[in-house]
Design brief:
This protein is of the alpha+beta class and 412 residues long. 35% of the residues lie in helices and 19% in strands. The chain is built from twelve helices and 16 strands.
Length: 412
């Protein structure tokens, strides 16, 4: 007997996700949606009466779920298979990244159903410990949230300096990340890289570092949410580049079959509302990730944001210097100029990311020179200002040393 989930976009019925007896998935749009909407929920799932079957449906919907060890622990806690995205979404798919929500057939999202728990320090500390054992608080009645990624995180509200748990299907406003065990000062690292990106002119959501007792946690605004003039939180649809290209999250790295820089550039060129501006924005993020030593900038760490009829490149997120950790792989998630290893990459390799014309080559040179020429000074100033605010970590200087070496390499 087939099992069915109803799929909603911003509380509007879109279609159904079906799992047959063999475990295969198929997604079909509602006829009324197709007749009134030109845009599908993904570039890989165009709005049509044709069924989207098998791997293309699985790749998109599996991309709404956490990955790697987080998915393993989630599935283990719930007592279901980590390889069964349908069963996982049935339990945690009530509020996904972007504007999608999945409900058992016949159930509907209820925006009015909103239960808020404002956390004091004792309760927050309990939650930070709990999500390590029970990812995303899965299994808690009324709490059906799913976030992609390989790191523990939780979708929350944040008001008047307090973290809030929001149940009942109402949209959240922030992502909370506890420290990553065995990864030194991970929260400080991501905060520094995100703040540095903003100072370098890269579009990023606001990020903060808070403490409960002496335990830090990272908090970042959701770029896929907006608060209207009446104070209501609204969802904005999004999808990552793996979803847009129909690539399963387990092969998100280019060397495993995941998106390349060229493939991402093609998506931007062919589908975004402002392809030229988004191409520049994308290349700036690629350059910045190289300079800070972020080897984990894979296809799921770039997204499209659907604010209008056509998407735009989403703000940068998940910026972390992995190069400061000797135990992590130095290989880039996506090749630059045919090279995976940063020590093999020089200015000429960045030239291969753009057309072989004088105008394009001059433009990429200006982008690199502008960023590499001032990023060390900006990072050093940021470190000093954070220290003046009482936020210190040896990781700041380690990141700056990586930036110095990479900036020098691009000048050779």
């Amino acid at each position: 007997m087939s099992r069915i989930l109803d799929v909603y976009l911003c509380d509007n019925f879109v279609g159904t996700l079906t799992q047959d007896n063999s475990g295969d998935l198929e997604f079909s749009y509602d006829q009324g949606y197709v007749e009134t909407r030109d845009r599908g929920i993904s570039l890989s799932l165009p709005s049509t009466q044709k069924l989207h079957k098998g791997q293309i449906a699985k790749a998109f919907f599996s991309g709404l779920l956490p990955e790697e060890s987080v998915r393993e622990r989630l599935a283990g806690y719930l007592g279901i298979s980590e390889k069964n995205p349908f069963a996982l979404l049935e339990i945690v798919g009530g509020d996904c990244a972007g504007a999608l929500a999945l409900y058992p057939q016949g159930q509907k999202p209820s925006p009015e159903a909103k239960e808020i728990e404002t956390l004091d320090d004792a309760r927050l500390k309990e939650i930070l410990d709990l999500i390590k054992r029970r990812p995303m608080l899965a299994g808690d009645d009324g709490y059906r949230l799913s976030l992609a990624g390989a790191q523990d995180k939780l979708a929350v509200g944040f008001e008047n300096g307090k973290v809030q748990l929001i149940k009942g299907g109402a949209p959240t406003t922030h992502i909370l990340k506890p420290i990553i065990e065995r990864v030194r000062d991970s929260a400080h690292n991501e905060l520094f890289c995100m703040k540095l990106a903003k100072r370098m002119g890269i579009d990023v959501p606001d990020a903060m570092l808070h403490f409960v007792d002496d335990t830090p946690y990272y908090l970042v605004e959701r770029y896929d949410r907006v608060i209207d003039e009446n104070g209501n939180v609204k969802r904005i649809h999004q999808e990552d580049f793996c979803q847009a290209l129909g690539i399963a999250p387990e092969i998100k790295y280019e060397r495993e079959g995941g998106p390349s820089i060229t493939a991402c550039q093609d998506v931007i060129a062919n589908h975004t509302a402002r392809p030229a501006a988004d191409q520049i924005k994308f290349l700036n993020i690629v350059i910045f990730n190289y300079l800070i030593g972020n080897a984990d900038a894979h296809g799921k760490n770039f997204s499209l944001l659907y604010k209008g009829d056509k998407p735009e490149l989403a703000p940068a997120y998940d910026l972390l210097s992995t190069a400061v950790y000797p135990d992590l792989s130095e290989k880039l998630a996506m090749k630059i100029g045919g090279k995976y290893k940063p020590r093999d990459i020089y200015l000429r390799h960045f030239h291969r990311m753009v057309a072989d014309t004088k105008a394009a080559q001059s433009a990429i040179n200006r982008q690199i020179q502008t960023m590499s020429g001032k990023i060390v000074d900006v990072a050093t100033t940021l470190k000093t200002e954070l220290q003046d605010e009482g936020l210190t970590s040896d990781i700041f200087e380690d990141i700056i040393e990586v930036i110095k070496e990479r900036s020098q390499r691009l000048s050779e």
